[in-house]
Amino acid sequence: MFPVVQNSSIGAVAIALRAVAPSAAGGTAILKMDKTGHWVFGADQTEVDADSLWAVNPFSFVHGYIAWGEGEVLGEKMTSITSPLPELEAAPPNAKRGWEEQVGLSMKCIKGEDEGLEVRYTVTSVGGKRAVQSMGIKIAERVDASPESPVPVVRLKKEHYMHKSFGRIYTPVFEVEAWIGMEGEAKAEPEAPARRRRAITE
């Protein structure tokens, strides 16, 4: 399913994922959560099958910076989580907020209407970065305990909170259903059920 690499590489990813967590704060579709809390992908903003399952590639985590103009990307500098953040020059002159820190990951649908689809998810929001970094920490912990099955199988979920100025704000959740090996073995180990989190208000 994903390229097979040596356990030493897995360990390097695990260390790098832990290191970044405290600060948290071609053929691949772009995945995002829209303002109404729906997961969508591609240029047509196709809604993701709610019952689909996705395998997160543990070697796909990236971090870096992006500069947005009026609805278009003016510049983007991303690198593997195992490498230092890219060096920055001055932001493009028309960038609305200059350079913004961005993190991301890639995953592949293994069950549902979108089976076989590979997507890339990158995000600059606080809630989005927290979700990606939380996923990274879970993988790092999994590598320590069971390195033979470091791939989380997740459902794409959401949470929300009420913002004083902007109203209801949706944030992404990667709900782990099971863990599998890099080759995508059919036999998956279920994830222990997690306690349900309540939405918070601000």
What structural keywords apply?
single chain, alpha+beta, 2 helices, eleven-stranded mixed sheet, disordered C terminus, 202 residues
TL;DR?
The chain is an alpha+beta fold and 202 residues long. The protein has helices at residues 7-20, 126-145; strands at residues 29-33, 39-41, 46-47, 53-56, 62-68, 73-80, 100-111, 118-123, 151-163, 167-180, 189-190.
What do you see in this structure?
The chain is α+β, with helices and mostly antiparallel strands and 202 residues long. It is 17% helix and 38% strand. Strands 1, 2, 3, 4, 5, 6, 7, 8, 9, 10 and 11 form an eleven-stranded mixed sheet that branches. Strand 2 and strand 3 form a beta hairpin. Helix 1 runs antiparallel to helix 2. The N and C termini lie far apart (41 Å).
Q: In DSSP terms, counting alpha (H) and pi (I) runs of 4 or more, how many helices?
A: 2
Distance between the termini: 41 Å
Query: What's the overall geometry?
Result: globular
Radius of gyration: 17 Å
Number of strands: 11
How many domains, in number, for the residues?
1
SSE blueprint and pairings:
Blueprint: H1 7-20, E1 29-33, E2 39-41, E3 46-47, E4 53-56, E5 62-68, E6 73-80, E7 100-111, E8 118-123, H2 126-145, E9 151-163, E10 167-180, E11 189-190
Parallel strand pairs: 1-8
Antiparallel strand pairs: 1-2, 2-3, 4-7, 4-9, 5-6, 5-7, 7-8, 9-10, 10-11
